[in-house]
Write a structure and sequence with these properties.
alpha/beta; six-stranded parallel β-sheet; 14 strands; globular
């Protein structure tokens, strides 16, 4: 995927422009931030700066280095329900969607939900009424009935989730709220998808797994990078054996966000920068881990078993602040501890190795690395290049474009999709809504989301333990040993 640097996947604003324009121009809401929208992110600042407004859930999530107390790292609690592996959605002619959070991410993703046939947007939630009004107009302009609007404070999403005419809740909010919103949706009988990370604590990840199994509702981290054109092509090539026996892979979120993190009109609160005052580990592993995990059939015949992480000193944000921010800026009260670059090694049950990187605090071009290697060759992205035998020889990279025949059916059917990130956002929404309409098993589930997110707390623990390996929980409770379908799907019959 060789587009220009893309906006990050989960800088989403719940009532604020949380840095997720999903285009290359870093679009902002010209109306600017509101005081109410800033209050929705007060919880994100609470642990590090003593701000008020924390709920019990967000306060727990914000605790520095918290892995959670209910479940020790690597432990497997007793199941409270049957597995959700292989469980299809209920078939329906129309998918009724509710959207919580209408900042940059939610405010742009609504366009994609409206663009997919058989989808109705029935309810919207954001504490900033101007944003709900703008989103509601998009719905009526698309020829759909006016949606119900919930804009009465931070917790009005709870009232939205009580409605009886919602099939799927989509949450595009700051990280602190993901766990609470996913939990509330499932307890009210709704399938739910949240932007990454699913949660930032192991005990909360386990709670979401248990709730999904108990309520029989799917809980998904909507990882759009799994639907990238290059990622899906490599996935199909890997499963066809073109790389031989798989040995190693790499993924990352290396994206210079310094200017945006110090821009009060982009990350209001500023909730994202404040996470750099609380954790040292990989804050955003999902974009890299998800695709590589799919290549290696993690949770579908292999399992991520342990992670070792190392982090550099935290110098980048302070250096940027010194050069660019006035002496009276509130950021001068902050002390940054998040490693400028974290590097983690994940080992799987089959002995494979996955390298994960995270760096949003230093100058560098955008890269998710997106690499896969095996006994017959290797693919590397940014820029895309390939070397597999017998196609290539003499230590010279080959042209990845020549492997277009391996494109996933989604990309063959939608050659020029609308939306951000080169079309991967639309692919995610289209495929998810298709699975719900046709009563199919989703491409990924709560076990995948929990696995892809577990490196957040575990990398923090490993760095503090001088790189000591941390056990990654088996969220499938042993069912990873059985191969099963995933992202490499067959085109269904409508």
């Amino acid at each position: 995927m060789n587009e220009a640097p893309q906006q990050n996947h989960d800088d989403h604003g719940r009532g604020h422009d949380a840095g997720q324009g999903h285009d290359l121009g870093h679009e902002r809401d010209e109306a600017g931030p509101s005081r109410r929208s800033v209050l929705w992110t007060a919880g994100a600042a609470g642990a590090g700066l003593g701000l008020g407004g924390l709920t019990a859930g967000s306060a727990a999530a914000a605790a520095p280095g918290a892995a959670g107390t209910a479940t020790a790292p690597g432990a497997t609690p007793e199941a409270k329900g049957k597995t959700m592996i292989g469980v299809p959605f209920e078939r329906r002619s129309t998918v009724r969607v509710a959207i919580i959070g209408l900042g940059n991410r939610g405010g742009s993703m609504i366009d994609l939900f409206l663009a997919v046939p058989g989808v109705r947007v029935v309810a919207l939630c954001d504490p900033v009424k101007e944003k709900t009004a703008q989103a509601a107009k998009k719905v009526t302009d698309a020829g759909q009935p006016a949606p119900a609007v919930y804009a009465n404070g931070d917790h009005d999403f709870e009232n939205l989730c009580k409605r009886g005419d919602i099939d799927f809740v989509y949450a595009a909010t700051p990280w602190d709220w993901h766990f609470e919103m996913a939990k509330t949706a499932m307890l009210n009988g709704k399938h739910v998808g949240v932007e990454c990370p699913l949660s930032l604590r192991l005990d909360q990840l386990w709670e979401l797994v248990d709730l999904s199994e108990k309520t029989r509702r799917h809980c998904m981290q909507l990882e759009n990078c799994c639907y990238g054109k290059n990622e899906m092509r490599v996935l199909r090539m890997a499963h066809a054996g073109l790389f031989g026996d798989l040995l190693h892979g790499a993924g990352a979120y290396n994206h210079d966000l310094r200017g945006l993190m110090f821009d009060p009109k982009y990350y209001e609160g500023p909730w994202r920068r404040l996470w750099h005052t609380r954790l040292r580990g990989d804050l955003y592993p999902n974009h890299g881990f998800g695709p590589v995990g799919n290549y290696m059939d993690v949770n579908r015949g292999d399992r991520a078993v342990r992670i070792s992480s190392f982090g550099t000193p935290a110098l980048g944000l302070a250096a940027y602040r010194k050069e660019h921010m006035p002496p009276n800026d509130p950021s001068w009260k902050e002390s940054y501890i998040e490693s400028d670059r974290t590097i983690s090694l994940v080992q799987t049950a089959k002995g494979r190795v996955i390298r994960l990187e995270h760096d949003v605090s230093t100058p560098h071009p955008y890269s998710r690395i997106n690499s896969l290697g095996g006994t017959k060759g290797v693919f590397e992205d940014y820029p895309e290049r390939i070397y597999i035998e017998p196609d290539q020889s003499n230590d010279e990279w080959g042209d990845f474009a020549k492997y277009a025949e391996w494109d996933h059916w989604l990309w063959k059917e939608h050659a020029n999709p609308p939306g951000g990130h080169g079309g991967m956002d639309y692919m995610l929404v289209f495929r998810l809504m298709q699975c719900m309409r046709l009563g199919l098993v989703p491409d990924f589930d709560v076990y995948d989301g929990a696995t892809w997110t577990a490196p957040v707390p575990l990398s923090d623990l490993s760095i503090k333990a001088k790189g000591a390996p941390q056990e990654i929980p088996d969220f499938t409770r042993g069912l990873w040993k059985k191969s099963r379908p995933g992202m490499d799907s067959q085109k269904p019959e409508e």
